[in-house]
Amino acid sequence: MKYTKNQHMLSQWFLRNFRSDDTANAPKDKQRVWCHSLNISDEGENDIKEIPLPISSIAINKDCFMLVDCDSQKKFDIEDELSEYERDTSVLFNELVHKHKFHKLLDVSRKGNALEKMVNFMVIQMLLGFLNPQNKMDGKEGVLEHILPDMVKNYESIKELITNPPTEIQPFYSQNIFKKMLRVIESNSEVYEKCKALLFLSMVAEAKNLPAPIGYLAKLRNGMFSKIHITGIFHTGYEFDSTEIRPVFTTSPNVVMFNQNNNFNLLPISHNLAIGFSLGVAEYYNSHLNIFSVYPNKLKCRSSKKIKIYRVSHDYMDGITGWVNLIGVGQTKTMYTPYELKDIERYLQHQSDNYDHHYSPDEPELVKM
C-alpha cells in the first residue's frame, strides 16, 4: 500500500457503531456522525458547535506516521498495520454489539482472551486519541511525552533489539509487522518520528500475541487497567438499527470514560451498548456479569448462573448515558453522537409526555430470560 497522507486516529468501524440516525440505513461509506464540540464563549457561556461529519473525515491527523524510506526516499507509514489490527479487533466488538456474546468476557484463562483484547483496544485507542486533532483534552500532549522521550533516549538500545533480535523472536521476522519495524529503523526520518511509529507497531504486535522486542502494551495495560472488574453491561433496550426516540450512548476521542469520583468507568461500544468497569479494587476477575436493559427481550443472550439480567427504567439508563456525555465532553470537549441537538430536545419532551413509563421500574428488577 502506498503512503496515505490522512491517518485515522479512530477506527471507522467503531464510529459506525454511533452512526447518525438520519444515515442509519445508508451505505457504510455514506454514514456520518454528529460531532458536538464544546467551547467557552467570550461571555463565559458554553458554546456548542454541532457539525455533521462523514465518518471517513473524522479523527484525521495528516502525516502523523509519515516516514522516509532509506533506499527509495519515498514516504511510507504504518497504516497497513493499524488497519489490520483494527479489522482483528472489530471481530470481537461485532460479537458483543450484534450477537451479545458477553459470556466471552468471563473467560480469562487463555492468552489473548476477549477481556484482554478489549483492554488492549482501550490502551491503543487512548494513545491514538491523543493524536486526534479533534481531541481538546487539556495536557494531552503530556501523555505521550512521558513515553516517547524515554524511547528517544534509549533509541540505540531499541535499534539493537530490533535489528538483532533474540533467537526466540527471529522466526517471527518473516511477518510484515517486523519487516515494517526494520524499515522504520532504517528510515531517514527523525528519531522521534521513528520512535512514535515503533511504539504503535510494538503495541499492535503485542495485541496479536507476537513477541514484540519492546513491550509497551503490557506495561501500559497492567499499569492503567490493573484489577479490572466489569461492574455492569448497559443495554439501552433498543436494537442496533433503531432510530426511535430513545436513550443513546456517545463516544469521544478518548473512547474510555474515566470517572475519578467513584471509579465507575465506562466504555461505550455502540449507541445502544456500554461496558462499565472498576479499576484497582477487585481481587478477582468476574465470575458473572450483570446486564441492565430497558427492554431485556431485545437481548440475544439468556440469563444463567453467570449472566444476570435486570430490567431498568429509561430514567436509569439516562443516568448512565448522562455520565458518558458528562465525562466525554469534560475530558475532550468533543463527542460523536447519533443525535443532533434537536433530537435531544425531542427526547426530553418524550420523557415528559411519558412520565410514568419513563420512570418504571423504580429499581432494577432481576428477570429470567
Question: Can you tell me about this structure?
Answer:
Pfam families: DUF4238. This is DUF4238 domain-containing protein. It comes from Vibrio vulnificus (strain YJ016). There is one protein chain. The mean pLDDT is 93. The protein has a six-stranded mixed sheet with strand order 8-9-7-10-11-13. It has a three-stranded antiparallel sheet with strand order 3-2-12. A two-stranded antiparallel ribbon has the order 1-4. The chain has a domain at 229-367. It is globular and about 70 Å long. Helix 3 runs antiparallel to helix 8 (191-207). The protein is of the alpha+beta class and 369 residues long. It is built from twelve helices and 13 strands.
Query: What's the total helix number?
Result: 12
β-strand percent reads 15-25%
Mean pLDDT equals 93
Elements, N to C (H/E) = EHEEEEEHHHHHHHHEEEEEHEHHE
Radius of gyration: 22 Å
Tell me the number of strands. Answer: 13
Q: Which sheet architecture does the biggest sheet show?
A: 6 strands, mixed
Flag low-confidence runs: none
Shape: globular
Helix content: 25-40%
Strand order of the largest sheet: 8-9-7-10-11-13
